[in-house]
Design goal:
Rossmann fold; six-stranded parallel sheet; 20 helices; glycosyltransferase activity; Exostosin GT47 domain-containing protein
Length: 568
Amino acid sequence: MPESPASPGKPPSQPGSPLNAATPFPASALLRGSVLLLAFLVLQLVLFWNILGFPSSRFLPAPGHRNTTWPNGAVNGGACDDGLIYVYDLPSEFNHDLVDDCESLWPWYSFCPYLANGGFGEAAATLPVFFNVTRNVSLPSWYNTDQFQLEVIIHRRLLSHRCRTTDPSLATAFYVPFYVGLDVGSHLWGDNSTAADRDRAGLRLLRWLNNQTSFQRSGGWDHFITLGRITWDFRRFGDDGWGTNFVVLPGIANVTRLGIEADRLDPMEVAVPYPTGFHPRTAADVRAWQRHVLSLRRSKLFGFAGAPRSGFRDDFREVLLEECEDAGSEHCRSVDCRGTRCTDNGAAVLELFLDSSFCLQPRGDSFTRRSLFDCMVAGAVPVLFWRRTAYDQYRWYLPPGPARGEAEDDGEWSVFIDRQALRVGNVSVRDILEGLSERRVRRMRERVVEMIPRLVYASSPDGLGDGMEDALDVALRGVLERFRRRRASTAPQGFSAKRPPGRSVALARRVDNKSTPAPAPPSDGKNGSAAAVNQNASGTKPSSPASSYVKPVVSKASASTGKSLQKS
């Protein structure tokens, strides 16, 4: 092993070199020094750029301890009339540390790229596979987003939300930013992972919550949390089995849980859309995308993204692949999603759905797949085979399907096919879809496109703006309404349950000196209706007769939201 000299000695002369060489000209030394300095500065810039791009807790700033109720600036009168939200500053082990340890979250590959950009993943503008799939004007709105990033996305957005307060005494709702999905996901496939490993973080969180005054006061009924994986990953009964027991712990019983899929028998769980790769910044971005997907000439009648599962008895995906093959390449195309092909390359799925009029949506590991939302964002009409895939699941977001035996109506947005009839060969997908009139198909597509804003998570801290709600806006409105009704049912007679004591005074001081709520904006097409996105530059509506069959999604969704809240 070569030794390092204790002190530098005079270096020996190289063979063949003159012993009394002339001293180098000073200009040459100066040039070498300048080159070395420039190289050093370039290296520092490269390292600094990599540090900024590497996913860590830096992209997700912790809630600041400020002496103001509105840490994110003043808001317009009435904007927070439904209530203020307090975001707990949890110990870092429950969120930030999980992000910092992104290399170890998944046993097969690094999870770090999917945690970049606050959980959106790598920007499509940096991935060549997206260049020919999305329009240039919409490319900045697209990311390679993993389906299990809901916890990170919601936390980041709420930290900068206009109705966030750092004073818990003024809060109507309390958000618990525990990345339970990331935590349990890191233990699901470990060779030596035990139930105790999967349960440990959840138990520690509940111990922490039980020491918080706000949680003690309400027992958790005004608290909510997000679940970034399907519900069955969090409801293990007993000491052995799949997943964690987090949601069946007594301490979590009163907490409202927003998850990508919910147990319909659990009234405390609410299903919210899976994160897709579309994260627009403004309402204008959404309208541009809506116009694009409505104008496409789709060459395939239907498409299917998935893969057969040989380990499953009577695998229904195999039936759908056979349907696609029987229809022929002129009418159907499929994308093989075995392994991580579709996870690594979301552009392949997007390209398929943009070119298909309909998309087949069987159940996955649970009743819904993220593919349902990828399909709708691409403007394709979903074809369903289980009612729980959508109709009985996303009550705050999607209109219910027709009752069994009931005729379709003008608000239809999907096709439902009896899977048993399809399996035995009594019907075929191609025959059913070709039997729909062109006018009816166009009406369904317009209905799907109207709903796009409510199915995506905006990249702007302020949401989409211009009166357009995204998926988080819908979720918060539902959560705050749920808490308001609970408070009203338990408040003493004569006590206003709309907001905690003292809040109205604070609002009057802070919210632009306006204590009167602003009236609700009229329905003027700003919520993403097909009629609005088809308007030309002059503001006039096109003469296409299809627009006369479009019904605004907001009015219906608001009604369905109210009904679903009454049931919960």
